[in-house]
Amino acid sequence: MSDHPVTIKAVHPPLPERLRELVASDLGSYVLAVVLIVLPLLVSGSWMFAIGVCFANAIGVLAVSFLVRYGGEVSIGHAFFAAVGAYSVAILDTRFGLSLLVSVPLALVLGVVTGVAFAWPSRKLSGIYLAVSTMALALAVPELINNTDALTGGYEGLYVSKPLIPGLPMSFQRYYVALAVLIAVVFALARFRHSRQGLTILLSKAHPAAADAFGTRQVWARCAVLGISGGIAALCGAMLAFAGSTVSPSGFTLWSSIFLLVGSVVSFYGLTLARALIGGAFLTLVPQFLSASGAWIPVFYGLALLGMILLGHYLPRLKEMMARHGGTA
């Protein structure tokens, strides 16, 4: 046997090949982003407004999906973090005349801080107990806003009107800023998935004992997940304030949190641009399509929700059956 030391080197594909693989894997997202960029040239102003709000809701769907994917938990209180972001933008705009360049970073920081502040005392809770505790946040939001009406505007709310870029039409700014933030969040989550921190958090979720053995405490992972999720939800609220132009307590109720969870379910907890848009559309555009149905809106909405869930459940099986049938043909 040879006494020469043996070194093991990781074999990586050549850089051009890796770049081709990366582009191919994200090609659908790139095409979708280009379509969304040129879409305002093809639709009316009312649809621009609705789609801009859809982008904002898609960010909230990503926040809930991130919590499910990385923390294995469900929240029905993310409207609280969205309200933190929305009122950060609205208050700085109305009371101090500051633009999104100041208010959006502040909203992100406050969202992360409130997420961690909630995660620490609830670090021992999981499952239905954590979900119910998050519901307490959603129930408290309207009262907190109304009892600080000197700052938040109370029931009447606040109007967000300061442009990010003076001179450009506000309708285009409300659309493109929300789209830019959505794409930035999707890109950041994709990078996080392959980062050392992201892999560590996933390990803590799947194998807590193994993560502890490597020095990663589950408490740290829980606080990190809720902090990031809260920050993303705050960005959702900030974009809801800017794209929707107004904020009020009625926009951040328990039902708002439930609908964010519904959007996450119909997007199958995906963190891609297409999946997030499916969830955002289910919150924003599907009710608009059903607006002419009158009293039947809840029935048709429920059928659409059931249809999406069944599609997500059976589509992989149908693809597998078709692939098996094609292989034997």
What does this protein look like?
- It comes from Rhodobium orientis.
- This is Branched-chain amino acid ABC transporter permease.
- It is a multi-pass membrane protein.
- InterPro entries: ABC_transp_permease (IPR001851), LivM-like (IPR043428).
- GO terms for molecular function: branched-chain amino acid transmembrane transporter activity.
- The chain has 2 domains: 45-161 and 170-270, no CATH class; 290-329.
- The termini are far apart.
- It contains 14 helices and 2 strands; from the N terminus they run H-H-H-H-H-H-H-E-H-H-H-H-E-H-H-H.
- It has 329 residues and is mainly α.
- It has helices at 15-25, 27-38, 45-71, 79-96, 100-119, 128-146, 149-152, 170-193, 196-206, 208-213, 218-244, 254-266, 273-289, 297-328, and strands spanning 158-159, 246-247.
- The radius of gyration is 22 Å and the shape is globular.
- The protein has a two-stranded antiparallel ribbon with strand order 1-2.
- Mean pLDDT, to the nearest integer, reads 85
What is the number of E strands? 2
The main sheet orders its strands as: 1-2
Outline the biggest β-sheet. 2 strands, antiparallel
Please report the distance between the alpha carbons of the first and last residues: 52 Å
What characteristic shape results from the CA principal axes?
globular
Count of helical segments? 14
User: What fraction of residues sit in β-strands?
Assistant: under 5%
Low-confidence stretches: 1-13, 18-24
Category from helices, strands and their pairing: mainly alpha
Radius of gyration: 22 Å
Q: How many domains, in number, for the residues?
A: 2
Helix content: over 70%
* Helix/strand order, N-terminal first: HHHHHHHEHHHHEHHH
